[in-house]
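Figure 2 data, in text form.
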Amino acid sequence: MEAPPLFLYTPRYALFDYGRDHPLRIFRLKLAVDLIEHYSLLSPPVEKTEPQEAPEDALLTFHEASYLEALEAADREGKPFPAMGLGNSDNPVFPGVYTLSRLVVGGTLEGTLQALEGRRVFHIGGGMHHAWPSKAEGFCYLNDIVIALKEAINRGAKVLYLDIDAHHCDAVQEAFYKDPRILVVSFHQYGPDTYPGTGAPEELGEGEGRGYNLNLPLDRYTEDEALWWAYQELIPPLLEAFQPDLLFTQLGVDAHKDDPLTALFLTTGFYERLAQDLASRWQSPWMAVGGGGYDIVNVARIWTLMWGAMVGKEVPEMLPESFLRISRMEGYDGPTIRDVPGWSGTPGHIPAEMRRRVELLKRACPLFD
């Protein structure tokens, strides 16, 4: 019998306090979990558990000891460490920043081990793909993804890592740039005004990892139709050719058309369709984490739809009144969990530059030979 899906979340994440004016509002997690529970998407056979703090030896597989000491001091004393990215507007310091970050790593690490046993797992609080060995970056303090992926390959697994966050997975790319055991694929907004500024299609990996690092940069206003075409051209053939032991997805949703930090134009339809397609092609092991998303109403709607697809349940259209009361305060007055049809782009129109970039990746990756 197939192992039941697993959902990882703890109310302790509410203590992750970036500050009132920070774009990452941690309340989005509770809002999403409440909506997921409303639709009975955590009912049996789904199992729900709370993450535990990762041990220090796990953190040291990627992070420098001096950085961990600084992060712990920032937690304990509120002391900034500017050279390590701690205490600026993106990565403020606050009581609990170290222990809560360890909790995030622990959730993704445990979820990955559970996924390797043949499960579909979603750690909604994970996805911190910008943290570096000795520096906090991009709202991220500890890189739960890299630590979990290192554990997976240490156990002999090949992993296809798909990152759909609007911001490029710079630290993940760097960690596995020479390693053919991790096939890194990233769809992200790209341009001179887009953080972190990495992720060009020419960044293909080095040495044995050449061709196993695939970046698909997205121009401003990229719509569902174009990205869905690119997804179909790349991901199903890669799954078939690479035959990973683990599918690991970072499900940042800041490429949605209403996200305040980006300029892409995806709808809920793209995200749900992607999750449904992966669910139909790849039974398990599948590890998913959250990621970016700065409109809390859309974060909750999209992650609910994607988890519904992961567990094979159709999500009803109408939103509950408890959710609508909050969404109206946030400026969303629609009564439905899905965006109104018609925003997905011109049918059949795939920009020439998108086609060129996809062909470049196909030529560079040996799995397309």
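Caption note: The chain has eleven helices and eight strands.
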